[in-house]
Amino acid sequence: MNHKLTLVLLGAAVALPAFGQAPAAPAAAAPAVAITATGTLVTQYMFRGQRLNAGGFQPTIEAAAGDFTAGVWGNFVIDDQVPGSSDPELDLYGSYTVAMGKDLSIVPGATLYTYPKADKAAGFYKSTFEPSLAVNYTVEGIKFTPKVYYDVTLRGATYEVTAAYAVALKDLGTELALTAQLGTFLIKDAANGSSPAVKSWGDYWLLGASLPVQVNKESKVILGVAYTEGRDAFTKQGNTPKSVNTLAVGRWVASVGYSVSF
User: Fold this and answer.
1) CA distances in angstroms from 185 to 93, 134, 151, 159, 192, listed in the order given
2) Are 230 and 204 in contact (CB under 8 A)?
3) Helix (H) or strand (E) holding 5
4) How would DSSP label each residue in 160-206?
5) What would the pLDDT profile of 73-106 be if each residue is shown by its tens digit?
């Protein structure tokens, strides 16, 4: 799932054992289902290079059982709502990781995007459904993730590649997670109920960093910053000339989140 910018930025804290420490007693078996709740404040809501809103609160509840992960992600506008956008947005997602080797895995998944207050008369959708397929491959500590999405409601594909690298900060007992992302999309039915159909296409990229700070065994604070930009983005209806997609912009995004695991 590519979800939104906050999910791209969330890193994982690491535990660094003390030098010379005696072997610890065997750890208790991990729970069959691990649940993580995260609340994040963001200065901008950017999705694939498009600015959907400004400041917002983005909560997530995620459950993991073995190789299966499922969750609910939301966005609630705090400031500067983009006209016509839905407040809130609530998304259901799931994925399954198939290990193909030590450094290789395949991850099929899907996301149901829902917009409860979207104005259908203005061309917005109440919901869309997007299956996806990703490949994770790690080489020299860099995790590469090419991923393809296809939204069956919007009738369009997104192609994306992400590279992630973690820099250990031993003195702080954590790591700095660095992320780079590049993507492109082509949607054939961008406006609900439009005839002829409205096409939308464009490119986007992102550079980001996040720093998890462990509060205790079960919780942490995640600080993030990124710059993301949409480029060469246009819309076109039927045979009319193409128009610039004004949602595609470049923005700095700062985020702070608090995560608790059960």
Assistant:
1) 20, 16, 10, 6, 18
2) yes
3) helix 5-9
4) EEEEEEEEEEGGGTEEEEEEEEEEEEEES--STT-SSPEEEEEEEEE
5) 999 999 777 776 778 999 999 999 999 988 999 9
**φ, ψ dihedrals at 149, nearest 5°:** -120, 150
pTM for this entry: 0.86
- CA 261 from chain centre, in angstroms, equals 19
Q: In what helix (H) or strand (E) does residue 7 lie, and over which residues does it extend? A: helix 5-9
Instruction: Report the pLDDT value the prediction gives residue 54, as an integer from 0 to 100.
Output: 84
Tell me, rounded to whole angstroms, the distance of Cα 26 from its chain centroid. 35
- For the chain, domains (ranges, CATH) are 5-11+36-261 (2.40.160.40)
* 117-169 tens-digit pLDDT: 888 888 999 999 999 999 999 999 999 999 999 999 999 999 999 999 999 99
* Token reading at 227: 């710059």
The two structure tokens encoding residue 157: 């594909």
Using 50, 70 and 90 to split pLDDT, how confident is the model at 21?
very low
The backbone torsions φ and ψ at residue 33, rounded to the nearest 5 degrees and listed phi first, read -130, 120
